[in-house]
Amino acid sequence: MKPYISIIIPAYNEENKIKDTLEGIIGINEINEVVVVDDGSSDNTAQIASQVKSEKVKVFKLDKNSGKGYALNYGLKISMKNADIIGFLDGDLGSCSSEVKKLIEPILKEDADVIIAKFPPAKKKGGLGFVKGLAKDSVLQMTGVELDATLSGQRLFKKEVLEKFKEMPYGYGVEVGMTIDILKYGYKIKEVLVNMTHSETGRDLKGFIHRGKQYYHIKKVLRQKKKEWR
C-alpha cells in the first residue's frame, strides 16, 4: 500500500504565486493531499487557491495573520489525520514547486526520516551570510551533524517524526529548532539539491530588518534548546 502524502502550504499575501505553486504539485501522483492555510491574507490568496481545479487541494483561511508557525500547526491538525508522510512547502515557490518530486523519492526509499531541500546559491546578494552561518554552526555544535540547508522550509517528514512534537515552534527559528530536536531524537536527515527559487530578501532596509529578526529568533531558540538538551 502506497504511503499517503500530504503537503502543507502556509501562505500570506501570495496571490501572484499561489496558483503556479499549486499547479506545480497537483499532478505529482505520489501526493494525495495539498492543505493550503491562508494566514489571514489581505489579498486574494485563498480565493485564487480555491479556484485551482484539483480534488487534492483543500483551502483554509485564518481570520487574522498569526505567523508561519501557527499556520503550520493549523495545517498539521488536518494532515496528521490521514498522512504517512507530511511535507512543508512555501507558497511563493511558483512552478518550481514541482521540484518537490526530488524530496519524495528518497523518503519513499527510506534513505532518511526527514528530507530537506537544498537551494542553489541566491541570485542576488542578500545579507552577509551571518544568519545562515549561525544556523549551520549551531546545529553542528549541538548535534555534531553538519547541514547546509538548516534554514530551508521545504521539508518532508515521516509522520512518526512530527508526532514527537506537540506543536511546531513559532517564529523565524522554527526550522533550526526542529532540526536540532530531530537529530537529538536520533532521526536521520538528508539534504537534496533542488532547482527551487523563491522570494529573496535584498540588501535594503526591509531585508536587513528581516535578517535581524531571523537572527534574534534563532538565538532565542538556541538558548531554549541548550536548556532542554543539557
From TrEMBL:
It catalyses: an NDP-alpha-D-glucose + (2R)-3-phosphoglycerate = (2R)-2-O-(alpha-D-glucopyranosyl)-3-phospho-glycerate + a ribonucleoside 5'-diphosphate + H(+); (2R)-3-phosphoglycerate + UDP-alpha-D-glucose = (2R)-2-O-(alpha-D-glucopyranosyl)-3-phospho-glycerate + UDP + H(+). Its cofactor is Mg(2+). It holds the Pfam family Glycos_transf_2. Keywords: Glycosyltransferase, Magnesium, Transferase. GO terms for molecular function: glycosyltransferase activity. Residues 6-129 form the Glycosyltransferase 2-like domain. The keyword Magnesium applies. Its EC number is 2.4.1.266. It is an enzyme of class 2 (transferase). Belongs to the glycosyltransferase 2 family. This is Glucosyl-3-phosphoglycerate synthase. It comes from Romboutsia maritimum.
